[in-house]
Amino acid sequence: MYLPKRLALLVGGGPAPGINGVISAVTQEALNDGIKVFGCYDGFKHLVEGKTDMIKELTKNDVRYIDTRGGSVLRTARTNPTKEEKHMENVLGVFQKLQIDALVTIGGDDTAYSASQVYKRCQGRMRVAHVPKTIDNDLPLPGSTPTFGFESAREHGTYIVRNLAEDARTTARWYLIVSMGRAAGHLALGIGKAAAATLTIIPEEFRGRQITMDEICDIILGAIIKRAAEGNHYGVVVLAEGLIGAIGEEALVAALESGALGRYGKVHRDPHGHLRLGDIDFGRMIKDATLERLEPLALRTSFIDKDLGYELRSAAPIPFDAEYTRDLGYGAVKFIQSDKAAQFGAIISFSQGHMEPLPFDKLIDPATKRMKNRAVDVSGEGYECARRYMTRLEQSDFENPGQLDVLAAKANMTTEQFKSRFEYLVAANGAR
Predict the structure, then answer these.
(1) Tally of domains in the chain
(2) Model pLDDT for residues 310-360, shown as the tens digit of each residue
(3) Residues 210 and 112 reside in one and the same domain
(4) Is residue 305 annotated as a catalytic residue, yes or no?
(5) d(CA 358, CA 363)
(6) Against a cut of 0.85, is the pTM above it?
(7) Which of 171, 190, 350, 383 stands the most exposed, by the fewest C-beta atoms within 10 Å?
């Protein structure tokens, strides 16, 4: 078995519950095997400048009691070392100067791509393993294996939404909650389903077609009308932030830059080229647009919009992630000492209790420089079940004359006006 002598460890991207568990497991397992461990603070931030002053040799005492803490003791950053040739040269130069012969990175698909390029450029001088993390759960791991951090974020988010649902009931108001999830609706749906939210809207339900803000608002209006017809004037709506992409980046950017939606934010991108969704006040945008559409319907209600995500990212890991991250950290060290690590750099995954290293070149698209996103399967029973317990307009509402009359009256419309305004929703989305 090959034994590296000096291992570098760093974290990239946004925080996720369980990062410290990986740091602890990697460090302790490596030290147990006689490998020195060097923690690189702030991801690639200082490495791209060729600096070594923010690299610390780690001991067992440094990591012994961090497993159950949130955040990252090595901190994190979104610095992209592949953006400039000089930056990558500096990174490799630092590793060569410190005689690093193994690298473990912790992060999402951007950090995975950066790690893959380090592996490619070092031409066999270093072994590289990447531990995938994101609360979005959108990385293509085998089967239904979650990314670490997701289950903890979902649990903490569920309790927040349950509390807000009780506040909504007590004060007779509606909450619009925007959940993190750039490319997939796993977190929004997981929270909405577990918290019994009134309605959850995710980008996958539109099956790849571009949508408009009007359509999102009409889906919410349909839920408000239906609840009002039942005598309930409160509720909770969970929106996945990925709906911004479903609206269409070009349309949204044009509206923001034209000033039509300028009060809701500006267009910025991170070092990896992603639109910074957190800089767009999507919840307030939808709230204001929905309230405007409520006026002619003679329905009076109050809305509170809330972004949900930053409260979850550095939360303490639940037992699932505390155990899972220890497995992943152990697996990363085991992999870099294996014969396979001499053949390829890999993303560390577990399936049925067995460590499964997934080669970089099998998961990362060289054109997009990212992994293919794992979307919510809206054709499965898991999503079907979620839909059955939501309040939203369904095909049956338009097929039952009595129900249709009640809904139309509650919306201050004739039956034909109501059908003309809202029936497209069930036709477009295949609702029952």
Answers:
(1) 3
(2) 999 999 999 999 999 999 999 999 999 999 999 999 999 998 899 999 999
(3) no
(4) no
(5) 7
(6) yes
(7) 171
Closest-CA residue to 175 (of 309, 294, 297, 301): 301
Q: Bridge partners of 347?
A: 130, 358
Q: What are the backbone angles phi and psi of residue 395, rounded to the nearest 5°?
A: -55, -40
**Reduced to 3 states, what is the DSSP secondary structure of residue 373?**
coil
For residue 280, pLDDT over 90 is answered with no
Alpha-carbon span 155 to 265, nearest angstrom: 29
Backbone φ and ψ of 49, nearest 5°? -95, 0
211 inside domain: yes
Q: Tell whether 397 and 259 lie within a shared domain.
A: no
Which residue type, as a one-letter code, is found at position 112? A
Per-residue pLDDT of 355-406, as tens digits, reads 999 999 999 988 888 888 899 999 999 999 999 999 999 999 999 999 999 9
- What's the rounded Cα separation, in Å, for the pair 188 and 199? 10
**Is residue 288 situated within a structural domain?**
yes
Domain range for 423: 393-432
Residue 206 and residue 8: Cα distance in Å, rounded? 43
Same domain for 47 and 86, yes or no, is yes
The one catalytic residue in 136, 218, 321, 397 is 136
Residue with tokens 């309930």: 232
**293, 314, 335 — which closes off a domain?**
314
With respect to residue 406, please indicate whether it lies within any of the assigned structural domains: yes
